[in-house]
Write a structure and sequence with these properties.
367 residues, 15 helices, 11 strands, alpha/beta, two-stranded antiparallel ribbon, binds nicotinamide-adenine-dinucleotide
């Protein structure tokens, strides 16, 4: 078992969040669960195999009566209606401040349930059991909650750190290869941002990773440690947390311009490689950085070029971006593994790099 603490003092009802990686039956104990609750609610993502939660049900029901409800998984649940449905469940089950909400699901179910938990009685404790790779390394780490509103993603939300996060990789067995790839984009991002040894070990084992795209528990724990270290420096996202947006400047544009919207992990993978090419052009990174990054992302099934998309629309969108100031946009650029720089870049340089020939590779973008 690996345990990482995230300091929650000063901004959360809990002094810290315990993040454990390992089989549920081995890592969930009284210390992790906290005081015996007055009521207990398990909210389960409809996508997961219900039997996988048997060990959790057993542990929870030995402490207090347990009520379980299913939440339809996927982005659609992150709506005002989806949020109200969760509040309805809280009302039915009469969750009070001494209650405990346990959420087993992907990032979407986690975001909407955590948002509901953050406002119910001005905040009830919750425990996260992430069931997608993306939720294990990213969405359920850091305390951000959100729903979409008026066609804009994550427009409404709060900060509400869970009491604990438990990542059991056996949950990922039922996850599609494509969903696993989405999580790999964030895991590789974390390695590039803050853990060079992790990056090198991923590169060395890329052949075995490519076979089933299943991560090792230790790799998840290392990626989590990168995010926790950054979030602790900047819990309310006002400065250094910006580094976590590596790959997101272009990534957001790609998500917004593609129809149906390009999955987040795919967009971030392309955004990271683009940022690396930009860094090379600006002399921030050595030549070959983008190819190195693309090679690993492609091994986990992610396309890394964006040549099938309309460059003019990308530029127009970046120009209109609220972060664009006097013909410049802000980018998180890799210097070398483990070292990022956040800086403005002139739009004409961005355009020049967008017009470079694609890097190519084993995974071709789909039009
Ligand atoms: N709060 C944050 O800091 C943060 C950070 C990153 C991403 N996010 C959010 O996370 C969301 C994406 O999360 P995601 O990638 O986990 O996708 P998701 O939660 O939308 O789940 C994708 C699909 O996988 C299914 N699923 C979940 N677990 C499964 C399992 N074990 N086996 C089979 N199917 C399973 C779900 O039912 C759903 O159909 C986005 O809304 C994004 O905004 C939040």
């Amino acid at each position: 078992m690996t345990e990482i603490f995230q300091d929650g003092r000063g901004w959360s009802p809990h002094p810290q969040c315990r993040i454990r990686t390992g089989p549920i039956a081995e890592v969930v104990d009284e210390e992790l669960l906290g005081p015996t609750p007055t009521s207990q609610l398990l909210l389960r993502d409809s996508g997961i195999d219900p039997e996988k939660l048997d060990p959790l049900r057993k542990i929870l029901s030995e402490r207090a009566p347990l009520i379980e409800r299913v939440v339809a998984g996927g982005e659609a649940c992150k709506s005002p209606e989806g949020w109200q449905q969760i509040l309805q469940i809280f009302a039915e089950v009469a969750i009070d401040r001494g209650g405990l909400v346990v959420v087993a699901g992907g990032g979407s179910v986690g975001d909407v349930c955590a948002f509901a938990a953050s406002v119910w009685h001005r905040g009830v404790p919750w425990i996260a059991i992430p069931t997608t790779l993306l939720a294990m390394v990213d969405a359920h780490i850091g305390g951000k909650t959100a729903i979409h509103f008026g066609g804009i993603k994550n427009r409404i939300g709060t900060f509400h750190l869970p009491r604990a996060v438990v990542s059991d990789i056996s949950m990922l067995e039922s996850l599609s290869l494509q969903e696993r790839s989405m999580g790999w984009a964030e895991l590789i991002k974390a390695a590039w941002i803050g853990d060079r040894p992790l990056l090198e070990s991923l590169e060395q084992s890329s052949e075995s990773i490519a076979a089933d795209r299943m991560p090792r528990a230790q790799q998840i724990a290392q990626a989590v440690a990168v995010k926790v270290a950054i979030v602790e420096q900047d819990p309310f996202d006002q400065g250094s947390r910006e580094r976590l947006n590596f790959g997101h400047t272009l990534g957001h544009a790609l998500e917004m311009l593609s129809s149906p919207p390009m999955p987040h992990g795919e967009a971030v993978a392309r955004g990271m490689v683009f940022a690396a090419r930009l860094a090379e052009q600006l002399g921030e990174a050595v030549d070959g950085t983008a190819v190195r990054m693309a090679r690993l992302l492609q091994r986990v099934g992610l396309a890394t070029d964006c040549d099938e998309l309309h460059l003019e629309s990308i530029l127009e969108l970046l120009q209109g971006d609220k972060k664009a100031r006097a013909g410049q946009t802000r980018w998180v650029l890799p210097r070398r593994p483990g070292e990022m720089v956040v800086r403005p870049v002139a739009l004409d340089v961005v355009e020049r790099v967008l017009r470079l020939p694609p890097l190519g590779g084993i995974v071709k973008p789909q039009s």
